[in-house]
């Protein structure tokens, strides 16, 4: 009786999983097929194969959509901001996790409160104007870093809390100073959570649309998300070209996710043990 109930539950769970997967995958398949169709065929938005595979759609998109410069802009914003996040968060989480007293405790809760507090774009614009960072690449990079630090600190703090303090004590006895202790002993142990933070934040920055829309007025500095938006405005009736544009934008983040998905599961699970 118990085995039959388990079988039924397993069938229901698998069916639900397959159904949810299809909801996510079917639009991607439609986009992929449409990117190789003619304009007339792509307007039907169907799962049928193209009568003739139009590979030149991608060439047209790359040439007319300014995707090369937009790709490098997105890569710059995502990579630099994520490197800043990983370095700052790993060091801060180590200090706070090893000394949760007084001001450190206040700072920790102040920073992670940013997870729930919405972004005030008016105040943020005033700050960037005061620092002459509006319409600059470094301004957007710093905004991305600041926005994603709270959740990253929360996860990294939980991960470091699982590392025994005895490791620190043994290293200090052997003559390690604070910096040497962190760089040579603790940092190698943080590879799982650092990989997780890199993948999650890279995808978040790459897919973001609103920040560059608000703070970048120069199309030469636009990332790929804004390039797709601009391209759609110019070719809204050419769904084959729009689909090719979207596929090229999705490709890098899909590759990063596929390569780093095992780190996401392991790192988030470890980082959620303590908080």
TrEMBL record:
Residues 71-260 form the ABC transmembrane type-1 domain. Its main location: membrane. Keywords: Cell membrane, Membrane, Transmembrane, Transmembrane helix, Transport. The chain crosses the membrane at residues 12-33, 75-97, 106-125, 137-160, 181-206, 239-259. CDD domains: TM_PBP2. GO terms for cellular component: plasma membrane. One of its GO terms (biological process) is transmembrane transport. It is a multi-pass membrane protein. It holds the Pfam family BPD_transp_1. InterPro entries: MetI-like, MetI-like_sf. It is found in: Cell membrane. The keyword Transport applies. The keyword Transmembrane helix applies. PROSITE patterns: ABC_TM1 (PS50928). Belongs to the binding-protein-dependent transport system permease family. This is ABC transporter, permease component.
């Amino acid at each position: 009786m118990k085995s039959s109930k388990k079988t039924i539950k397993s069938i229901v769970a698998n069916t639900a999983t397959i159904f949810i997967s299809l909801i996510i995958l079917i639009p991607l398949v439609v986009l992929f097929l449409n990117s190789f169709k003619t304009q007339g065929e792509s307007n039907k938005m169907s799962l049928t194969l193209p009568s003739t595979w139009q590979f030149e759609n991608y060439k047209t998109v790359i040439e007319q959509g300014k995707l090369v410069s937009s790709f490098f802009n997105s890569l710059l914003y995502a990579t630099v901001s994520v490197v800043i996040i990983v370095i700052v968060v790993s060091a801060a989480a180590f200090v706070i996790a090893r000394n949760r007293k007084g001001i450190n405790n206040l700072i920790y809760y102040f920073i992670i409160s940013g997870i729930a507090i919405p972004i005030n774009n008016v105040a943020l614009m005033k700050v960037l104007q005061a620092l002459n960072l509006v319409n600059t690449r470094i301004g957007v990079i710093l905004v991305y870093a600041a926005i994603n630090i709270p959740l990253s600190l929360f996860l990294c703090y939980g991960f470091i809390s699982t590392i025994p303090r005895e490791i620190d004590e043994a290293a200090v006895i052997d003559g390690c100073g604070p910096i040497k202790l962190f760089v040579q002993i603790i940092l190698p142990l943080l590879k799982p959570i650092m990989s997780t933070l890199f993948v999650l934040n890279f995808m978040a920055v790459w897919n973001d649309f609103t920040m560059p829309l608000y703070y970048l007025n120069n199309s030469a500095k636009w990332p790929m998300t804004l390039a797709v938006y601009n391209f759609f405005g110019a070719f809204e009736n050419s769904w084959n070209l729009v689909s090719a544009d979207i596929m090229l934008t999705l490709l890098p983040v899909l590759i990063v996710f596929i390569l780093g998905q095992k780190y996401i599961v392991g790192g988030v699970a470890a980082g959620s043990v303590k908080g």
